[in-house]
Structure formats: structure tokens, C-alpha cells
Amino acid sequence: MQERSKRMLLTLVIIFLGLAVLQRFTSNAAITTIPWWVTVVILAAIVSGYMWIRTSLEDRKAEAEWIEQEGRVYIRRMEHERQQRASATNQEQ
Fold first, then answer.
1. Where residue 2 falls among pLDDT bands split at 50, 70, 90?
2. CB–CB of 42/14 below 8 Å?
């Protein structure tokens, strides 16, 4: 799945959850009866969850890039060492 599709899907899930929460609180009582701080806490929890998911995805991506970069360095070292061994055996013969 492409990165853009994942973002779109995540955004739709968040909007769905927000609408579900809004519907839950507005179906039996008007939203004005809910204290304002409860609404702020709910919105903060939703935003916090979104930011947590976003940050964890970015961290995972950065970690994968770092592992790939270190793997390339390791492979270069192995090839360089292999060439040194090959040249050393050629000089001995």
C-alpha cells in the first residue's frame, strides 16, 4: 500500500471516529450540555493518538533507512576486505 493511501485511510478512520464520538454525545443530549473541558480532552486524546501513530510511522521509516545505510557500509567493508585478501594471496604466489 502506498504512503499516500495509508495517510488517506488513516485520515478517514480519524474522521470516522470523530464523527462517531460527536454522534454519541449529541444523540441523547445537546453538545452544549457537555462541559467544554470534556470536549477538549476528547479532542486532545484524538489528536494525541493521531500524532502517536504518525510519529511511530516516521520513526519506523527512519529506522529502516538507518538499517539499510548501515548494511551498505557493512557490505562495502566486506567487499574491500575480500579484495585485500585476494590481492594478498596473489602477491604470495
1. confident
2. no
CA distances from 82 to 23, 28, 34, 77, 89 (A): 66, 74, 71, 8, 11
Distance from C-alpha of 84 to C-alpha of 20, rounded to nearest angstrom: 65
CB 39 within 8 Å of CB 31: yes
Instruction: At 74, list the grid cell.
Output: 557493512
- Separation in Å, CA 58 to CA 11, 27, 54, 64: 16, 37, 6, 10
What is the model's pLDDT at position 5?
Answer: 83
pTM (2 decimals)? Answer: 0.49
Quote the cell numbers at residue 68.
539499510
Q: Would you say 48 and 56 are in contact if contact means Cβ atoms under 8 Å apart?
A: no
- Tell me the per-residue pLDDT of 51-72, one tens digit each, with 9 for 90 and over: 999 999 999 999 999 999 999 9
The C-alpha atoms of residue 32 and residue 24 are separated, in whole angstroms, by: 13
